[in-house]
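Is this the right way to post structure tokens for a design question? Let me know if I should format differently. Anyway, here goes:
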């Protein structure tokens, strides 16, 4: 073919031997007609060997004048070729078409290496055929930089939205598609989990006035009336607490006087019931976090293992109490919040192990069960983030009432229903067996959440 610059449209035909001669004659006529068709600069017929079944392959190549001409030909000349092939030969000729673009090596920007700067593959065009990176080595403009940063967020057909929508309304669909090989259309699972978890913690726990206090005027000090009101509320709370203790003591004495209870038995019961009782401090006149650390101790069963006794002596508990008093309750809460994401990540493999036990005959690898909970936790962060944003919107509009409560109740019902439907979608078992495994999973999941959050609390407490 002569050297033209327009796109090349190729029609490949797989032909049965019975119709090879008439098909080749017909193709020669098509090529001749194409040469006389407006918008086609050149055309030719070539042999392309055989397919795996031994059928002959013939290719008609048409060089269009430009992209506009090709668009017009697709709706006219090339459409007529496909229709005529079907009407003449039926299933004895299989037609496959594609558009090929010219490779202009000389169009690479000057000074750019002929090999990809990312992976080293030789460049043939504007993009690397191995890793997909563009051949340009410099950013063109601020606008291009912003598009690369936020393209997935603002493009409606991006992988971000293709991931979030089924994640929210199609339980188990992402996991099943990923396991079946349909992956390129979605964001990677762990990236989805990390992005949504970060967004959730920013939305829920980020306080601009606290974290960006430099940009806000300091709050005015409390007035004398406010200080007096706070002191009065503290005094009333202390009196109510003491009154409740006195009432309990009087009731205990009445029961003892009537012979209905034995004080010694009660004391033994309290010692056994208490287990490990960690006392970090007592009441104090100052507003310390844990009160008076001189009373800090660990009481309970004396038969603790040696490693526990070595690590949790009364002296060390007093030291921890004093350190937590120095950092204050606000810092303590922030430290717990910082450890919650790690605790939830630790929970993922534990729950995947539970699924591995619940589905021993599924022939799924451990990582596939892990993927299930990665998607479920990503959904959990997503729906809670939407709920918080919606409630904040209602509050800003002074509409936070029954509607906000309704949203919370709806989300509380939807989350467990979502988990059940996801199990059905991914593992494909019947309702009865899925319900049975679902109840076991709920119990173990609740226990796992409790223990991981308790672990985060204890680590925060004893790592001061």
């Amino acid at each position: 073919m002569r050297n033209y610059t327009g796109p090349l449209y190729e029609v490949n035909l797989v032909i049965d031997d019975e119709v090879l001669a008439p098909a080749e004659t017909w193709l020669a006529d098509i090529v001749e007609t194409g040469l006389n068709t407006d918008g086609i600069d050149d055309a030719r017929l070539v042999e392309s060997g055989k397919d795996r079944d031994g059928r002959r392959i013939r290719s008609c190549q048409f060089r269009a004048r430009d992209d506009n001409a090709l668009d017009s030909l697709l709706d006219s000349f090339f459409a007529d070729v496909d229709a005529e092939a079907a009407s003449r030969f039926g299933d004895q000729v299989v037609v496959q078409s594609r558009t090929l673009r010219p490779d202009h090596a000389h169009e690479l920007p000057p000074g750019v290496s002929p090999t990809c700067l990312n992976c080293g593959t030789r460049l043939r065009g504007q993009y690397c055929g191995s890793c997909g990176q563009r051949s340009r080595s410099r950013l063109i403009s601020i606008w291009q930089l912003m598009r690369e940063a936020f393209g997935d967020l603002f493009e409606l057909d991006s992988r971000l939205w293709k991931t979030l929508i089924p994640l929210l309304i199609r339980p188990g669909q992402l996991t099943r598609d990923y396991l079946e090989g349909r992956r390129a259309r979605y964001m990677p699972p762990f990236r989805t989990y990390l992005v949504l978890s970060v967004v959730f913690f920013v939305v829920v726990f980020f306080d601009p006035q606290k974290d960006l206090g430099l940009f806000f005027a300091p709050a005015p000090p409390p007035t004398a009336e406010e200080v007096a009101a706070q002191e009065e509320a503290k005094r009333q709370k202390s009196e109510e607490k003491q009154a409740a203790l006195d009432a309990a003591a009087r009731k205990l004495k009445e029961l003892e006087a009537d012979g209905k209870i034995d004080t010694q038995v009660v004391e033994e019961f309290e010692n056994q019931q208490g287990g490990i009782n960690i006392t970090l401090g007592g009441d104090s006149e100052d507003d310390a976090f844990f009160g008076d650390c001189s009373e800090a101790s660990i009481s309970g069963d004396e038969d603790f293992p040696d490693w526990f006794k070595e690590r949790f002596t009364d002296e060390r508990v007093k030291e921890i109490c004093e350190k937590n008093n120095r950092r204050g309750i606000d810092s303590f809460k922030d430290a717990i919040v910082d450890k919650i994401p790690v605790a939830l990540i630790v929970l993922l493999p534990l729950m995947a192990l539970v699924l591995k036990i619940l589905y021993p005959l599924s022939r799924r690898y451990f990582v596939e069960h892990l993927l299930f909970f990665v998607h479920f936790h990503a959904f959990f962060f997503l729906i809670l983030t939407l709920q918080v944003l919606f409630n904040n919107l209602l509050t800003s509009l002074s509409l936070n009432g029954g509607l906000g409560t309704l949203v919370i109740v709806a989300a509380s019902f939807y989350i467990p229903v979502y988990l059940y439907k996801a199990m059905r979608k991914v593992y494909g078992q019947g309702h009865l067996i899925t319900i049975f495994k679902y109840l076991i999973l709920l119990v173990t999941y609740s226990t796992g959440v409790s223990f991981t959050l308790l672990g985060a609390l204890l680590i925060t407490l004893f790592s001061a």
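Format looks fine. Someone answered above. Worth noting: Residues 330-462 form one domain. The radius of gyration is 36 Å.
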